[in-house]
Automatic annotation (TrEMBL):
Record flagged with keyword Metal-binding: no
Cited SMART domains: RHOD
GO molecular function (one): oxidoreductase activity
Cofactor: FAD
Protein's recorded name: FAD-dependent oxidoreductase
Family note: Belongs to the class-III pyridine nucleotide-disulfide oxidoreductase family.
Record's keyword annotation contains Flavoprotein: yes
PANTHER family: NAD(P)H SULFUR OXIDOREDUCTASE (COA-DEPENDENT) (PTHR43429:SF1), PYRIDINE NUCLEOTIDE-DISULFIDE OXIDOREDUCTASE DOMAIN-CONTAINING (PTHR43429)
Domain Rhodanese per the UniProt entry, residue ranges: 461-542
Cross-referenced Pfam families: Pyr_redox_2, Pyr_redox_dim, Rhodanese
Highest taxon above the source species: Bacteria
Species of origin: Caproicibacterium amylolyticum
């Protein structure tokens, strides 16, 4: 059997390696038009910033490695021009010599990846304008910085790569400005979590402009649609990627609703002898079962392995993705998995959210607060998603949420997880457990939450309500929500008699715990509609700091 793989890097090389592990007799050839066939794309921003000193650390494997270890022939600087599925023939061009030749296959894998999106901006082809998608892009940026010593950078887009490059350019001493077309940074997060990221970026000296459009790039800067010019002698366009499907489409291979190649769980395309994997394919969501496009290196490795297994008789099948992502911006860690609130609402779920502010470990052990947003289905109680902004320990918690969501956990299940505890690592009840408790209280135990946005709607609605600040009087005097009454927790029982039990009542404290305690007192005293403010006064103020 002759296997040809179009494209290397994460997906293609994983497919080749797994196919070889399953079959010693197969001929395996990989064509890649680039010079680098295996590299850590996620490490590129850190080489630009100098944290990774040697670029060779990002490119550990070359064609000779794959030939010696796997007996796989990888031909670099070879571009596949066309696929003929009926005859099982490819047309290939040697980019070094210009020679064009044909090759035949029994099984074919398309691992053509994705390419950077460059919006239709006037002047976007200047020598000081870059995208960052591969090692060649990285090297061009590094050379430009070393030779030209730019002073100011504009970064268009605030996804993972844009923010990571921003941090690393700051380390090099450049003044950087972030430009985002959407009304918030980090498009994958809900807006009530993105505010934390934006605040942190700005506190680290990076101006952030949201809801702006770039119409032109000149040698001296970036011009916005309102005529404002942002000075810049280096511009990074980080506006996302699109699947590279030109070959597949020309060969009549079916694309999915996202525009990426449609595959089944064994990575087969609409042509049974042709498989596809990596950033060029459409995945499906583990929660909803619906098609999505979430190109990540971890998924590329996984789907490549499945493709290599499937074509050689294996039984591996893809189980979907949650769109899990994590990145660092300065010293802050940002992570997400599953459905966001706005995605869940758009899909028709009756959504319950909570905002849980807890330290990653006790403060006496140097703990620092993280903000966890949990998203759940109010009907079934199933956990749908989680987003975390914090510092140490975010990666641990997001992976627990990933595991729970993957195995269809309900919010009440989180409390029963036997998580590791010792003061250097966690609080006695882990923040994951607290998140489950808060959501369980809201969904099943008659302790409803109200978000900052919902409270604003209530205040503006004209309905009768009572807003209770359950913190100490001194905290109330320092700062409070405008229409709130100061009734400290210790005085709630006595004050209950003078309050309207039939009116909507909202309690709050700093972060939610004491507000819940006051809520319990009122509910037990016969109050009919009592809500606790999700995330408390601290989260409410963060939301309103952006307005």
């Amino acid at each position: 059997m002759r296997i040809i793989i179009i494209g290397a890097v994460a997906a293609g090389t994983s497919a080749a390696a797994k196919a070889r592990r399953n079959s010693e007799s197969a001929e395996i050839v990989v064509y890649d038009k680039d010079s680098f066939i295996s590299y850590s794309g996620c490490g590129m921003p850190y080489y630009i910033g100098g944290e990774v000193e040697n670029a060779d650390e990002l490119t550990p494997r070359d064609p000779a490695f794959f030939k010696s270890k796997y007996n796989v022939d990888i031909l670099i600087r070879h571009e596949v021009l066309s696929i003929n599925p009926d005859q099982k023939v490819l047309k290939v061009k040697n980019l070094t010599t210009g020679e064009v030749f044909s090759d035949s296959y029994d099984k074919l894998v398309i691992a053509t990846g994705a390419q950077a999106v460059v919006p239709p901006i006037k002047g976007a082809d200047g020598r000081h304008i870059f995208t960052l998608r591969n090692i060649n892009d990285m090297n061009r940026i590094k050379v430009y910085i070393d030779e030209n010593r730019p002073k100011r950078a504009a970064i268009i887009g605030t996804g993972f790569i844009g923010l990571e490059v921003c941090e690393n350019l700051k380390k090099l001493g450049l003044e950087a400005t972030l430009l985002e077309k959407l009304p918030q940074v980090t498009p994958g997060l809900d807006s009530d979590m993105a505010v934390y990221v934006r605040d942190h970026i700005e506190k680290n000296g990076v101006p952030v402009l949201t809801a702006v459009s770039v119409v032109e790039i000149t040698e001296s800067g970036v011009i916005l649609s309102d005529g404002k010019e942002i000075p810049a002698d280096l511009v990074l366009i980080s506006a996302g990627v699109r699947p590279n499907t030109v070959l597949a489409k020309a060969a009549g291979i079916e694309l999915g609703v996202s525009g990426a190649i449609r595959v089944n769980t064994k990575m087969q395309t609409s042509q049974p002898e042709i498989y596809a994997c990596g950033d060029c394919i459409e995945q499906f969501h583990t929660v909803t079962g619906k098609p999505v496009y979430r190109p990540l290196g971890s998924t590329a490795n996984k789907t490549g392995r499945i493709a290599g297994d499937s074509m050689t008789g294996g039984d591996l099948e893809f189980r979907g993705i949650l769109g899990t992502g994590i990145f660092k911006i300065f010293d802050m860690t940002v992570a997400q998995t599953g459905l966001s609130e706005h995605e869940a609402l758009a899909l028709g779920y009756q959504v319950q959210v909570c905002h849980n502010i807890k330290p990653n470990r006790p403060e006496y052990m140097g703990g620092r607060e993280m903000v966890i947003k949990g998203i759940a289905d109010r009907v079934s109680g199933r956990l749908l998603g989680a987003q975390i902004v914090g510092y140490e320990g975010v990666d641990k918690r997001i992976d627990v949420f990933v595991t729970a969501i993957t195995f269809k956990a309900k919010v009440e299940d989180l409390f029963h997880l036997d998580l590791a505890y010792a003061p250097p690592f966690s609080t006695t009840k882990d923040p994951v457990m607290y998140t489950g408790m808060i959501l369980d209280n809201a969904i099943h135990r008659g302790r409803p939450l109200i978000t900052a946005q919902e409270l604003d709607t209530l205040v503006q609605s004209g309905q009768k309500y009572t807003l209770i600040d359950a913190r100490a009087a001194a905290q109330y005097e320092k700062n409070h929500i405008e229409t709130a009454k100061s009734i400290p927790h210790a005085k709630v029982r006595a004050a209950a008699e003078s309050l309207d039990k039939d009116a909507i009542t909202v309690t709050y404290c700093n972060k939610g715990v004491t507000g819940n305690a006051a809520q319990n007192i009122l509910i037990n005293d016969g109050f009919q509609k009592v809500y606790n403010l999700s995330g408390g006064h601290k989260h409410y103020c963060k939301i309103h700091s952006e307005k």
